[in-house]
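Why run this: before we spend reagent on co-expression, it is cheaper to look at a predicted model of the complex and decide which construct boundaries make sense. The entries below are exactly what would go into the expression plan.
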Amino acid sequence: MSFKSKFASNEGMQQDAAINIASIIDCFTVLITYILAAASFLSLGALDAGIAGTDTSPKTAIVSTVPVASMHIHVNEENHMQMNTSVGGQKAQSNVEMAELSDKITVFKTANVNLKTITISAADKVTYLDLVKLVSLLRKLDLSVVFSGKPE
Amino acid sequence: MKFNKFQKKGSHAHAEVELPLAPMASVFTVILVFLIKSASMSVTSITPSADIDLPEVTTVSEIPEALKIQISSSGITVADKPIVEMQDYVPKERTPASEEFSVSKLLEKALQFEKGENKAEQDSKLVIIADKKAPYQLLKQIMSAAANVGFLDLKLVVIGGE
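The model came back. Tokens follow.
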């Protein structure tokens, strides 16, 4: 009995119970503004590189008919580059500029498919920016980079 | 007369014009969730110190969680601890003058200590956050110290994108 009457009285009231959204929106606006202001729009990334002469893994003899190729790039103080290559013990040296480096490496890599890593060294005054540009270029060519302390 | 008409109409209509706030709240919720998610998705929290001007390049990979070394014109820090004080990339000499001073040795000790502290978390990776004007002479010493301690895999932090 009491249940029925209680329900009936509820029907009679028919009130709209609405959540106050305005205050939630205020809160969200403040939060979004704060997050956007605090967010850093610079995307940081990393370039992979290694250090030469530190490979301690046991060597296994690889029998290959392809001559072993290696490349060493030395950057001098005027940002000119010296490219030292070795294919099956045959050494060669040439001077290259940054603009033509990509083409020269691509040609060398096509001729010597086993070239996977390039060693880099630089003069003392060469800046980190120049080295990073070089590393970035080599990484684009799908080559690993290792740093060396001395020119070859 | 006209005014009367107006009054009459106004009192009669008295309709509440409400802004539909519910869809607005939904949109805001989506934006908020997206922003919070994207903020927490960045794997590492790297905040280079104010005096470090990072180089900009394209084609970069993600920065892994590893020991960080920062190189600025005023000094070198390892895991946010100042190790070497410098002025324009030239290390300030320590006193007493007789004590042999070597950036490489100092860094080696610091890296060794950090490696020992976080042995489980660290592997051979070392994140280098250097100013773009840092000379190779200094980087060489850092790399030498890192190699001696066993950090062979370098991650050079740059500004860039895919």
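Chain A touches chain B through 42 residues (CB under 8 Å). Helices of chain A lie at 2-13, 21-38, 98-111, 128-140. Bring this page to Monday's planning discussion.
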